[in-house]
Amino acid sequence: MQSQPAVEHPPLSIAIQGLRFSWQPTAEPVLAIDALTISSGERVFLHGPSGSGKSTLLSLLAGVHTPQQGSIEVQGRALERLSQSQRDTFRADHIGYIFQQFNLLPFLDLIHNVTLACDFSAARRQRLATHGTSATAEAARLLKQLGIPEALHQRQASQLSVGQQQRVAAARALIGSPPVVIADEPTSALDANSRENFLHLLFAECERARTTLVFVSHDQALAPLFSRSVDLSEVNR
Ligand SMILES: Nc1ncnc2c1ncn2[C@@H]1O[C@H](COP(=O)(O)OP(=O)(O)OP(=O)(O)O)[C@@H](O)[C@H]1O
């Protein structure tokens, strides 16, 4: 019998096994996920009812919290085996996080809000150096790519519209090419056109660096733009 040609699977970016997480030790787990894997470079739309645990799952993927049971591997590292300070370093080096409220520093200009992510990560600085660029030059390139004109780069973040703040937050997550970007409803304050436009720019930057994207949103209209949809209420039992 002729053997089948081997199917090439891209390496896993995220692998969850036997996960159980409760906010209180005696409470029922908020998350009980037997298995969930995400390949490198996938763009995943994570959805589910309010309170189903989407933000909780993102905080576990980012190593902010650790599960009581099971394993979460990100880029081959089992986060639950790391100390808190090792997880903080791992997050700064490997994970870009776009928060719902963006978390920009209002008194800093846009360039410095973006380069801040490099101040905490030797790995991001090293990757920029490998590509022959500096944090400041890359911050300017990303801001322009994401639709923020150069004339605004020296402005304080507090002087921006919500849509502009969101783009700065995305640039900060992307600088230094972390292999994983996590976004928690970053488009909820935007109109439909701005949302799609922002997503196309975000996808282009993710493709450039082959970044894995895990994106939480309630807006089902965005789902077809992603390579895969995960309904948390289906994988969480
Ligand atoms: N810091 C916390 N301490 C205790 N319980 C929490 C905490 N954060 C979330 N929870 C609880 O965990 C459950 C899941 O919350 P989570 O915010 O992860 O849901 P979600 O799916 O992101 O919701 P939404 O779509 O409304 O943002 C909820 O019951 C919530 O009350």
TrEMBL record:
The keyword Nucleotide-binding applies. GO terms for molecular function: ATP binding; ATP hydrolysis activity; transmembrane transporter activity. The keyword Signal does not apply. It comes from Aliidiomarina maris. This is Methionine ABC transporter ATP-binding protein. One of its GO terms (cellular component) is plasma membrane. Keywords: ATP-binding, Nucleotide-binding, Transport. It holds the Pfam family ABC_tran. Residues 14-235 form the ABC transporter domain. Gene3D superfamilies: P-loop containing nucleotide triphosphate hydrolases.
